[in-house]
């Protein structure tokens, strides 16, 4: 349960400092996680980004304040992190469907987002098929691109990257290069510290391959690790997204394992039709007890 407790500690930190200009690094530190892994876990569990959560909570509190107090709207705007009344009014109207002035007069309905509390899910209705693998270091070869996980930028950029790979034939080249260490094409998330370019992760579309990378490709060594491998069955992208949510909401909180730091996660895809209801894929997560 320590994993859930750490995540809740980070959420409580956001709430306790909701009016302050806190950074994702400060929030993630409360969960003893990198900014990338915290944001990834948070978005998988809640379906929103950390930035969206903070914004929604601030606008919820702002609406409550406007409806019960008589302070100036411009002061409320500054209090909840907006530099101008115009920016505040635009964001406020987008969430609540009414202007701050109308909220002051309690005109219309408000959209409230309550304080988030993480709970362990013990449904058990959907069985999870998984096994453990101890694997020596191996090399992957493919293409990579840097992304920021702030505000879910990676959630937009990575699908575009896959679309390009499927259109230009790189996926076919990767299937041909595969050496069967892990059969298939891999989607690999590599966490790293923020760089001047503003990215906090590299995303690889690659395959296991020995030797010098062919022209146009790069290579990366994946360290030796103990992995938990989850079977994923069903069409993309829903089956993969649902599997990730089940892993973080049901398996990790009760398994006694944590993510092994410094080793990337991997999704493994086959050449089957991605829309097939019988499509078989895998999620590989490095773990430590």
From TrEMBL:
Protein name per the record: AraC family transcriptional regulator
Keyword Transcription regulation: yes
InterPro entries: AraC_E-bd, GyrI-like, Homeodomain-like_sf, HTH_AraC, HTH_AraC-typ_CS, MarA-like, Reg_factor_effector_dom_sf, Tscrpt_reg_AraC-type_HTH
Domain HTH araC/xylS-type stretches: 8-106
Coiled coil segments of this chain: none
GO MF terms, alphabetically ordered: DNA-binding transcription factor activity; sequence-specific DNA binding
Keywords: DNA-binding, Transcription, Transcription regulation
PROSITE patterns: HTH_ARAC_FAMILY_1, HTH_ARAC_FAMILY_2
Keyword DNA-binding tagged: yes
Taxonomic source organism: Paenibacillus selenitireducens
